[in-house]
Design goal:
- The chain is mainly alpha-helical.
- It has a single domain, classed as Up-down Bundle (Na+/H+ antiporter like fold), CATH 1.20.1530.10.
- It contains 17 helices and four strands.
- Strand 2 and strand 3 form a beta hairpin.
- Helix 7 runs antiparallel to helix 8 and helix 14 runs antiparallel to helix 15.
- The longest helix is centred in the first third of the chain and has 32 residues.
Length: 456
């Protein structure tokens, strides 16, 4: 009698998910290059003879006093533009867990458990290092700084290392980053909320409900949705809760499943995955504009003039670097090994454990959310915030180097694997490695095209 097939870790995604993944990764990789470029410009400018002009631009205040909306440009980037980033994260997370491969608890278990462990372990390492190096009091407020993986930064590094990493590992990395971004926004909402006001937060539920009512009925006219989204954001901001929470909340209201009936005003047919349509249009805005602008205003740290030496005397900076390098690696890799051990699952035959080790180092690349949490924990522009920024940059670069040392020697095998994944001998437009059922073929073909604009 034949032995039953054992569960496998890092299995290849289904064809519809692979097509969605390819599109998302292309955008995020380009966005990562823009992010790195914006951060480099900011660092060079902040350390040039004209550094005061950079600080003046970052701290320039614009807006209205109503609802505490007279903010610096740096603050607008962190609270406003990053709300777009988290809106896209909310869309993607909901779609993955309701209609994507992660609706299967067995497939969802690994990236979710790895993401949770990849948040807990860095926090524990941070707290331990800060304690051992003499930190006390407010120093511990930065425990969540090394929590989140920056998917754009990580994919930009992958693009440099080689573009042939198996689809299963790329899918895992993308899902893990989305889940730990969601965990990070929950931490921000609970742990870094100051001067909380209940009334504006309660009022924000009204435009949020109206937004949900419209999108659930496929009514996605910009003239209706944008005022509701902006009002929700402004009221959440006025409540003292970080305004990016509004982005996640709005994203989670967007439908990902068909409706039996849609009203006459609906822009889309009932079978349309509206979340994917929104994501298709807004991901380039998030990755190509919102996140790079935030990086430009957040990454301008002074290195010259003694700043670099002072950073490495700061227990918080040491804790951040250790959390990114050691905590992320230990959390993600240990979670994967434990899942394999206790579920008696085998690694996919196309992969090796050295690939998991390299990917675990890659998750230590933190940037966008880490910079945001650092500003919330210690105050934007403070001396401690400057140390945190430099530590995040150093830790992320070191994590990228360690990942490169592991993954680059495997490039030849990845290239061979990539060619096999792309092979299409029957000429049907779908690689032969994907066993495509009729329903999956229909799902892939139903993805919105470039012209399907939800904001029409």
């Amino acid at each position: 009698m034949s032995q039953p097939l054992r569960e496998r870790l890092f299995t290849r995604p289904s064809w519809p998910e692979a097509t969605a993944l390819k599109s998302a990764l292309r955008t995020e990789t380009v966005g990562g290059a823009l992010l790195l470029g914006a951060a480099l410009v900011a660092i060079v400018w902040a350390n040039s003879p004209w550094h005061e002009s950079y600080a003046a631009l970052r701290d320039l205040k614009v807006g209205t006093d109503w609802g505490h909306l007279r903010l610096s440009l740096g603050h607008w980037a962190a609270d406003g533009l990053l709300a777009i980033f988290f809106f896209v994260a909310g869309l993607e997370l909901k779609r993955e867990f309701l209609v994507g491969d992660l609706r299967d608890p067995r497939r969802a278990a690994l990236p979710v458990v790895a993401a949770v462990c990849g948040v807990i372990a860095p926090a524990l390492v941070f707290l331990g290092v800060v304690r051992l190096t003499g930190g006390a009091g407010d120093d511990f407020r930065g425990w969540a700084i090394p929590a989140a993986t920056d998917i754009a930064f990580a994919l930009a590094v992958l693009a440099v290392l080689g573009s042939h990493l198996p689809a299963a590992l790329r899918s895992f990395l993308l899902t893990l980053a989305v889940v730990d971004d969601l965990i990070a926004i929950v931490i921000i909402a609970i742990g870094y909320t100051s001067d909380f006001a209940l009334t504006p937060l309660a009022l924000s539920l009204l435009p949020l409900a109206a937004f949900a009512f419209l999108v659930q009925r496929r009514i996605t006219y910009a003239v209706l949705l944008l005022p509701l989204a902006l009002t929700t954001w402004a009221l959440v901001h006025a409540s003292g809760v970080h305004a990016t929470v509004a982005g996640v909340a709005l994203g989670l209201t967007v439908p990902v499943t068909p409706r039996d009936h849609v009203p006459a005003l609906s822009v889309h047919p009932r079978s349309t995955d509206v979340a994917h349509v929104f994501e298709h249009r807004l991901r380039p805005l998030s990755a190509g504009i919102a996140v790079p602008i935030f990086a430009f205003f957040a990454a301008g740290v002074r290195v010259v003039g003694g700043g670099f030496e002072q950073t490495w005397r700061d227990p918080v900076a040491l804790g951040v670097v250790a959390g990114l390098l050691v905590g992320k690696f230990v959390g993600v890799s240990t979670a994967t090994f434990v899942m394999a051990r206790f579920t008696k699952a085998d690694l996919d035959p196309d992969l090796r454990w050295i690939d998991v080790i390299g990917l675990s180092f890659l998750t230590g690349i933190g940037f966008t959310v880490s910079l945001l949490v650092g500003e919330l924990a210690f105050g934007a522009g403070s001396e401690r915030d400057e140390h945190v920024k430099l530590a995040i940059l150093a830790g992320s670069v070191l994590a990228a180097i360690l990942a490169a040392l592991v993954l680059i020697p495997c490039n030849a095998r990845y290239r061979e694997h990539g060619e096999r994944e792309a092979r299409d001998d029957d000429g049907d437009g779908i690689p032969d490695v994907y066993a495509v059922a009729p329903g999956e073929r229909a799902a892939a073909s139903a993805r919105p095209e470039v012209g399907d604009d939800p904001l029409s």
